Amino acid sequence: MLTTWQLSPIALTAIVLAALGYAFCIVLIRRRGGRWRIRPTLGFIVLGLGSYAVIEFGFLGVYSSELRFAFTTRIALLLFAVPALLATGKPVELLRSALTGRARYLLNRLLTSKVIGVMGNAVFGPVFALAAFSVFLTPLAGIFRASPGAEDAIGLVVPAVGLLLVLPLTELVVVRTGLFIAAEFLLAFAELVVDAIPGIVLRLSDTLLDHASPVIGTVPGWFPSALRDQQLSGDLLWFIAEVADIPILILLFIRWSRHDRRETASIDELSDEEVEALTQEHLRSSGRDRSG
């Protein structure tokens, strides 16, 4: 696993373009006299693009078309781990700082759109992951794994989708009510159980769910049998899906804490007369509810 490497031209092109785009934004900021921090730059290049390179050029990328557990693990890491590490580079903040005029206006319109608002819901990511991982339980998984075009597309589309799921949670401030955040907490805890279903099914099934044909030609002696390959796929998918929910819960806790601080600050700013008026209004509304 540590010595298997193979260069992927498409992944290499994506890495170069992403690094150049990030550097170009930094240049734009410096031309206007601004500065960009070194820590997010290292996070984006070393952690984000570095993890993407390890996955695409290493064992998981090389054997993705031949081994089920390499295929599923690769997709799970591209969907969860790589976007989270790329997000340490603060790409949204970088774009906002680099763009001006109409370009920045369009970016802000996009970031405040309904689509991004839905993705900013902490429950959307786990639900989407559950739907995506359920594909591994169907023959579509075998078709995608055997198609070179699909394999190349996965390396580009999956991390891009992952970024759309991660960035609204990490960089965009979405206003939520306390009740809505509490509901997100309950649903996120439920997702801890639901996300495990595809991995459990892969692990416990005694038949090949993707109906893929055996690998043609000579294979290394350490290759597992087809059924064991599927079981390993289930083990790893189950583990990654559960671990990926933990940052969601942490982000929800942070969001709840910030919401509580904002509410406390807004109450502290009120005068004694305003607090008394709000209290009386609350008591009157409670009395009307009981009488009704």
Polypeptide structure, described:
This protein has 292 residues and is an all-alpha fold. The protein is built from 15 helices and no strands. α1 runs antiparallel to α2 and α12 runs antiparallel to α14.
> What ranges have pLDDT less than 50 throughout 5 or more consecutive residues?
none
> Average pLDDT, to the nearest integer?
82
3D shape: flat
The H/E string reads HHHHHHHHHHHHHHH
Q: How many beta strands in the DSSP annotation?
A: 0
Describe what is shown at a glance.
By secondary structure, the chain is mostly helical.
Which features does this protein show?
mainly alpha, 0% strand
Secondary structure elements and their pairing?
Blueprint: H1 9-31, H2 38-57, H3 59-62, H4 68-79, H5 81-86, H6 91-98, H7 101-111, H8 114-119, H9 124-133, H10 139-146, H11 148-170, H12 178-194, H13 196-204, H14 226-268, H15 272-291
Helix pairs in contact: 1-2, 1-6, 4-14, 12-14, 13-14
